Amino acid sequence: MATSTRTSTTTSLTSATVKTVNTGTERPVPLWAERTACLLPLLGLPVCLWRLPIGFGFMMGMDMEPETWPRWAGVAYVGALSLLSEAAALLCRGLVRPWGEVVPRWIPLLGGRRVPPFAAIVPVALGGLFLTGLPADWVLCVFGIAGFSDVAYTSVWWRVPAATVSGLFVLWGPLVPALTYAYYRRRCR
């Protein structure tokens, strides 16, 4: 009787971890990967919005002088950084969508061709490896561990939201490599 209990438990555990979603890809996408790909742009959005006033010279409670760049350069820099962050997050959707496997037909010269798996895996994996250092740096700086320090803020009312939005962004560190691994398993195995 104990054997049948183990078998049913293993079966239920196995079936619980195999939940997939049919997104139009060759093989079904794990549900967690689909949700993660949807979540990435939302995790980056708060920090993108937080940094926009900095481009206009409002330091969001940081106890430091604004950059001496011309206003247009600061706005362009911060705006481009925010747009690139969100674009990278949205491109991660390709890891769970058909356009991550076959180039859309509307793209000239390449439309309809299969995307070689490593053409997606290598750049995303390199970006993911870069991002994996962010959680450690965030923890060390926010909590002042081992002599690391964060930017000084004028009050805790600025420090807490800044740590929160940057902490959300830091979650990309473990999520992007996990999403890349799910893509690798689905496309290469």
Describe this structure in words.
With 189 residues, this protein is mostly helical. The protein contains 7 helices and 2 strands; from the N terminus they run H-E-E-H-H-H-H-H-H. Strand 1 and strand 2 form a beta hairpin. Helix 2 runs antiparallel to helix 3, helix 2 packs antiparallel against helix 7 and helix 4 packs antiparallel against helix 7. It is elongated and about 55 Å long. The N terminus is likely disordered.
Low-pLDDT parts are 1-16
Bin the helical content.
55-70%
Report Rg: 21 Å
Q: How large a portion of the residues is in β-strands, by DSSP E?
A: under 5%
Main sheet summary: 2 strands, antiparallel
Query: Mean of the pLDDT scores?
Result: 88
Output the strand order for the largest sheet. Answer: 1-2
Order of helices and strands: HEEHHHHHH
Structural class: mainly alpha
- How far is the first residue's CA from the last residue's CA? 36 Å
Number of helices: 7
How many strand units? 2
Shape: elongated
Task: Offer a few descriptive terms.
single chain, 189 residues, mainly alpha, two-stranded antiparallel ribbon, 63% helix, elongated, disordered N terminus
In short, what is this structure?
This protein starts with a helix and ends with a helix. The chain is built from 7 helices and 2 strands, in the order H-E-E-H-H-H-H-H-H.
Task: Give the topology, please.
Layout: H1 2-17, E1 20-21, E2 29-30, H2 31-55, H3 71-91, H4 117-131, H5 133-142, H6 156-170, H7 172-188
Antiparallel strand pairs: 1-2
Helix pairs in contact: 2-3, 2-6, 2-7, 4-7, 5-6
